[in-house]
Design brief:
Blueprint: H1 4-27, E1 33-35, H2 40-49, E2 53-56, E3 62-70, E4 79-87, E5 94-95, H3 97-100, E6 105-111, E7 117-123, H4 124-134, E8 139-142, E9 150-155, H5 156-162, E10 165-170
Parallel strand pairs: 3-6
Antiparallel strand pairs: 1-2, 2-3, 4-5, 4-9, 6-7, 7-10, 8-9
């Protein structure tokens, strides 16, 4: 069974070692970015908007990013796990981030065998607009976590075809 706390610690360590120097420091204007992970206000942003990082883009716009960093599973991914139900435990059901995320972009990073990251920066509004009409046609996943998180497997090829996607290959730290 996955442990949220351990997974979150791992994800943040990869973010700090790989994403920060190779993505945020490179693409944020004058290094202007905030990692939203500590403090009362950070908790509010995380819980209400599902935003992990706020940065200023090269054109001066403030951009909100939701990050997903997935460990190397021993094979190459062909789909992204889009969470529709955060908890499916009877009496504790709750919607997943595909329902309420307010980020401008989803930065979905797949760890590679060498420890590097294959990252997809996806326009979240376009992903949302594409996803919900096709949701029922996509395969279901359910995680063996305490919350029994559930969602749909969105083929990467389809996301690339229908949504605004930029790709980045980041090397292991």
């Amino acid at each position: 069974m996955n442990n949220f706390t351990d997974d979150n610690v791992w994800q943040r360590s990869v973010r700090d070692a790989v994403l920060v120097p190779q993505f945020y420091e490179k693409y944020a204007t004058d290094g202007r970015y905030v990692l939203v992970d500590k403090g009362r206000f950070a908790d509010i942003i995380q819980q209400r908007l599902d935003v992990d990082t706020i940065m200023q883009s090269k054109d001066g716009a403030v951009v909100a990013i939701e990050e997903k960093i997935v460990r190397w599973p021993g094979y190459n991914y062909t789909a992204l796990c889009l969470e529709t139900e955060s908890c499916t435990v009877k009496g504790h059901e709750s919607d997943g981030w595909m329902h309420f995320c307010e980020a401008d972009y989803l930065l979905y990073c797949l760890q590679q065998q060498d420890g590097g990251l294959k990252c997809y920066l996806i326009n979240f509004a376009e992903l949302y607009k594409w996803f919900w009409p096709v949701e029922k046609s996509l395969n279901v996943f359910e995680m063996k976590t305490q919350n029994r998180t559930r969602g749909r497997l969105a083929p990467i090829a389809d996301v690339r075809k229908h949504c605004g996607v930029a790709e980045y290959n980041l090397v292991a730290a």
